[in-house]
């Protein structure tokens, strides 16, 4: 099969929905073998059904699932070693993350929420990066792509704070940059994906139907709308593929221009593309 990711083996964390699932479907369409991982077994089952239905998987590629809590190193290591029989990891998409409803200002946020957020959003990315490098070396790979999901909140401040989340995503950015430089001559690229606010449950459930909460955000959107997961997934395919062979250590921002905007336009929002799975 000819595809932009033909012959590559990929692991996606947080693959049960949102960015992770849209990416999985595109990866399959581009010829990759994919291990979908998530903490939610039920979510993974549904995601697998969607990926089979929509992924147009090549006959010689694989599609499997594994329950993984990214805050547990043994789980992450297990997912990576699961790919040994496939020929090792080529693409690691460390995407799982949480934004806890009890995360707020520095005064409101409890140590428990801080630690939970850091364990998933930062340690999870560390474990994923570390074991991906181990696998790349073990299998003698001359190239590999690790993509770590950060956020636009790692680039701009907000007066609607979630300090643990923001600090965690800042750590992802710095960690990714350092690893990118460290491993550059091995051919192992590391890039951060920095999504703008999206139309996924992670954010939309939190915003609910609170009009003021929504308005405070929407006024900053140059394109007048939230982003869709598929728009992130297309960027991830590029970062995962050899087309981005000279793209390393970037804060790859996919936010409709939000982090570059001062005064945003008036008028109706642009049309959103449709996600594949939802
Ligand atoms: N939605 C947004 O507006 C937005 C903006 C910027 C960055 N992000 C980031 O994008 C990533 C994906 O989020 P999404 O918007 O697709 O949301 P999502 O909630 O649809 O996806 C997150 C997935 O991570 C899984 N997960 C949670 N804890 C886990 C753990 N400990 N181990 C393994 N999996 C776990 C969840 O079950 C879920 O399937 C996250 O890192 C998030 O912080 C999202």
UniProtKB/TrEMBL annotation:
SUPFAM superfamilies the record matches: NAD(P)-binding Rossmann-fold domains
InterPro entries referenced in this protein's UniProt entry, alphabetically: NAD(P)-bd_dom_sf, SDR_fam
Annotated keywords: NADP, Oxidoreductase
Keyword NADP included in the entry's annotation: yes
Molecular-function GO term, any one: oxidoreductase activity
Family named by the database record: Belongs to the short-chain dehydrogenases/reductases (SDR) family.
Protein name from the UniProt record: Oxidoreductase
Originating species: Talaromyces proteolyticus
């Amino acid at each position: 099969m000819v595809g932009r990711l033909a012959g590559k083996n990929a692991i996606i964390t947080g693959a049960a929905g949102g960015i992770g699932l849209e990416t999985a479907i595109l990866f399959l369409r581009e010829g990759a073998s994919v291990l979908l991982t998530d903490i939610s077994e039920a979510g993974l089952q549904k995601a697998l059904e969607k990926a089979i239905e929509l992924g147009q998987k090549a006959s010689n590629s694989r599609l499997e699932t594994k329950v993984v809590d990214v805050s547990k190193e043994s789980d992450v290591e297990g997912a990576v070693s699961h790919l040994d029989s496939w020929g090792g990891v080529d693409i690691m998409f460390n995407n799982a993350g949480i934004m806890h409803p009890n995360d707020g200002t520095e005064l409101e946020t409890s140590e428990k929420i801080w630690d939970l957020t850091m364990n998933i959003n930062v340690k999870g990315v560390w474990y994923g990066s570390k074991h991906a490098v181990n696998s790349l070396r073990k299998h003698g790979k001359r190239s590999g792509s690790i993509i770590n999901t950060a956020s636009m909140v790692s680039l701009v401040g907000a007066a609607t704070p979630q300090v643990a989340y923001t600090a965690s995503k800042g750590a992802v950015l710095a960690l990714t940059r350092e690893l990118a430089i460290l491993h550059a001559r091995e051919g192992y690229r590391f890039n951060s994906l920095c999504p703008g606010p999206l139309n996924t449950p992670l954010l939309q459930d939190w915003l609910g139907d609170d009009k003021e909460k929504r308005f405070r955000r929407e006024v900053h959107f140059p394109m007048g709308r939230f982003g869709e997961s598929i728009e992130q997934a297309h960027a991830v395919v590029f970062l995962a593929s050899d087309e981005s062979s000279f793209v390393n250590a970037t804060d790859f921002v996919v936010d409709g221009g939000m982090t570059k905007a001062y005064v945003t336009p008036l008028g109706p929002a642009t049309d959103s593309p449709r996600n594949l799975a939802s």
